[in-house]
Structure formats: C-alpha cells, structure tokens
Amino acid sequence: MASEKPILYGYFRSSCSWRVRIALALKGISYDLVPVNLLKDGGQQFSAEFKAVNPMQQVPALKIDGITLSQSLAIINYLEDTHPNPRLLPQDPKKRAQVRMIADHIVSGIQPLQNVNVLKQMGDKKMEWAQNCIAIGFQALEQILQHTAGRYCVGDEVSMADLCLVPQVANAERFKVDMAPYPTITRINKDLLELEAFKVSHPSRQPDTPAELRA
Questions:
Q1: pTM metric for this prediction
Q2: How many CB atoms lie within 10 A of CB 32?
Q3: Do the Cβ atoms of 197 and 162 come closer than 8 Å?
Q4: Rounded to an integer, what distance in angstroms lies between the CA atom of residue 94 and that of residue 84?
Q5: Consecutive sets of 10 residues in the chain, 215 residues long: mean pLDDT of each?
C-alpha cells in the first residue's frame, strides 16, 4: 500500500514554513498543504484543532510517515535522514558543523527575536525592534560567511544553511533593513533565488498567498 502524502501545516509568509517548503522541493517530495493563518481570527495557530497537531501552536508542522514533527530544523533533518538526495548536510565534518552553525545563528539568534509573537509585544516600536535584531545578526553572519562561503553559504553546494538564509533576507527586506553593509549575504541570496526549489517555495507562489501579494 502506498504511504499517504505528507501534510504540511504552514503559512505563506512564515520563514520557518518556507525553510521546510524549500527542503521538500529540493528533495522532490510532494505534499498537501493545510494553511494556518497566523493573523486571521486572532491567529489560527491558537485553535484547539491546531493545538492538537502542535502543542507549541507554531508553524510549520509536518505529518509524515505516521508521525507529526514540528520545528523546521527537526523536520529538515528528518527529511535529510529519510531522503538523503540531494544532500543538505555536507559529508565533511567541518563543513557540516559550519552549516549547522549558520542555520542555528539564524533560527535561534535572529528570527525568533522578530517573529509575530514578539512583535505583538513591541507596539509602535515593532519596526525599529525588528530592524535592530536583524542588523545585529546580519553583522555577525556577514563576517562568518566571508570565511565559509563559496557560491552559497558553505562552499558551492546548497545546504540547510541556505534554506535558512533566504527566508531571513526576505524578512529583512519586509522590515526595510538596509542590506548595503551585507554584500556576501546579498550575493548568496540572489544566487539562491535563481534556483527552481527556491522559486516554487516562495511566499508569493503559495496556495494561501493573498491575491495582492501573488507573483
């Protein structure tokens, strides 16, 4: 019997959901989407129905192979273990560590500080807060990438680090962060956005993308 198609619970503009969409696209895994609108009805992630899927009430969540996973890097690591091609973690231990370092830098050190729940608490200062958090993180990331980057974040192969970078640059652009001080980040992001997996997973091309934001 064929296994059921995976189900992704996500939101078109969620950077965490976007990371997982890129991984699914790169690995050629088709899935069904259940949109979870983080703004509508006070946030659909807070519904009892979705809390049963992910008690943390955050997107993404992925139902796959009879289990439900949350947290984008946990999901991507599972996809890497079960669908190893194309590889998103280098075989070389040093490069693998660098990929994980850059991914963690973004998913732990930048994105959570400017996510929707934090910004709700910031009132009129939300734009200033988000810009400052991203700028501090990008100053460090630019320095790191000058030592690790080839065409992409670590060498010349797309890795988990790149899946984290592109959505975070989109966040920076949404919050009107000046990208001029970050030429390495900007160059890598531009190259990645030329790849088909990054195009099809883009927030402007999702089933739940509002008409006015569609590509």
A1: 0.94
A2: 11
A3: no
A4: 19
A5: 83 96 98 95 93 95 98 98 97 98 96 79 87 96 98 98 98 96 98 98 96 91
Residue 105 near residue 136, CB atoms below 8 Å = no
Amino acid code (one letter) for 184: T
Q: What is the pLDDT of residue 1?
A: 40
* Residues, the chain: 215
- Return the HEC string of the chain: CCCCCCEEEECCCCHHHHHHHHHHHHCCCCCEEEECCCCHHHCHHHCHHHHHHCCCCCCCEEEECCEEEECHHHHHHHHHHHCCCCCCCCCCHHHHHHHHHHHHHHHHHCHHHHCHHHHHHHHHHHHHHHHHHHHHHHHHHHHHHHHHECCCCCECCCCHHHHHHHHHHHHHHHCCCCCCCCHHHHHHHHHHCCCHHHHHCCHHHCCCCCHHHCC
pLDDT of 114: 76
Quote the Cα angle for 128-142-122, to 5°.
Answer: 15
